[in-house]
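Researcher: Quick test of sequence recovery. Tokens follow.
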């Protein structure tokens, strides 16, 4: 069955922009036809999915902030598995954006608000999200008020139930500012369930990378070491760690890809594993992740 086989019942659009629950029978009207007029995001979810429930408020708020440029449609994959299967959705939460009757973009997993906002802005242009505590945190960081941002994030992270986003952002703040002892202490206090959250796991991966790089030489010295012996995989590996800490993600990925290209088996596939950890730390929507993932796939499967 193709998309053209779906029912052509009239569009069931609500008068306001509240999320719309759809079915396979209404998919053509609610999504395909509606996407000819504006972007339609389909949120594939299930009642038992905790990350789905965490994603929903942020997704709804940010779609609403587009001022009508986007519409949110939800599909329960337990009740309506057919569309998700056709789109290749294998895990949830998953969001697929439709434009002009076709899938245009998407993401899988629980993303922080900043990445969801960036995802939407790529589709509809700049949007103004409503002011909230996290927006205040962003403003404080932009103004250089690190102590204010830390205090607010600490307060948010202490709420019950735990807020993974606040915890992850506080962990990244400590890591980015070189306060690795504070970051380690914070992570040690995290319940196991919180550590399994995607945003917290990404922040923890960034911390681990920073800890490993802290014991290495400076970037310039590592560049000279790698240049002196291009076949020294360990030198390239150490350089990648140091470059990542400096925010030079594309160079860091290139160093690891060079190792994979030369010797996939080096250090028990260590270069590829480290690159995957970079992807986790950088996030799935980061342009360096997307670029390096494509290059890695090309090396592994060409």
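Model:
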């Amino acid at each position: 069955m193709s998309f053209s086989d779906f029912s052509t019942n009239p569009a069931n659009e609500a008068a306001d922009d509240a999320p719309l629950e759809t079915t396979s029978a209404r998919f053509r009207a609610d999504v395909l036809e509606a996407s000819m007029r504006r972007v339609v995001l389909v949120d594939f979810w299930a009642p038992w999915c905790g990350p789905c429930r965490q994603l929903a408020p942020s997704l709804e708020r940010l779609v609403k902030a587009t001022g009508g440029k986007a519409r949110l449609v939800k599909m329960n994959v337990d009740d309506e598995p057919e569309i998700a299967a056709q789109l290749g959705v294998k895990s949830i939460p998953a969001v697929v954006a439709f434009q002009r009757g076709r899938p245009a973009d998407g993401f899988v997993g629980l993303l922080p608000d900043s990445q969801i906002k960036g995802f939407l802005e790529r589709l509809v242009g700049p949007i103004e999200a409503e002011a909230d505590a996290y927006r205040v945190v962003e403003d404080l960081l932009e103004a250089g008020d690190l102590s204010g941002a830390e205090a607010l994030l600490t307060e948010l992270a202490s709420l019950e139930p735990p807020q993974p986003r606040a915890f992850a952002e506080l962990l990244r703040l400590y890591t980015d500012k070189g306060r690795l002892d504070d970051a380690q202490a914070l992570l040690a206090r995290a319940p196991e369930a919180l550590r399994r959250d995607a945003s917290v796991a990404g922040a923890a991966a960034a911390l681990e990378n920073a800890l490993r790089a802290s014991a290495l030489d400076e970037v310039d010295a590592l560049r000279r070491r790698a240049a002196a012996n291009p076949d020294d995989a360990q030198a390239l590996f150490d350089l990648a760690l140091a470059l990542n800490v400096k925010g030079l993600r594309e160079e860091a990925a290139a160093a690891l890809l060079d190792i994979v290209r030369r010797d996939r088996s080096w250090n028990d596939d260590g270069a590829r594993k480290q690159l995957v950890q970079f992807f986790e730390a950088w996030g799935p929507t980061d342009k360096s992740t997307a670029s390096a993932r494509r290059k890695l796939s090309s090396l592994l499967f060409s």
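Residues 1-15 have pLDDT under 50 and may be disordered.
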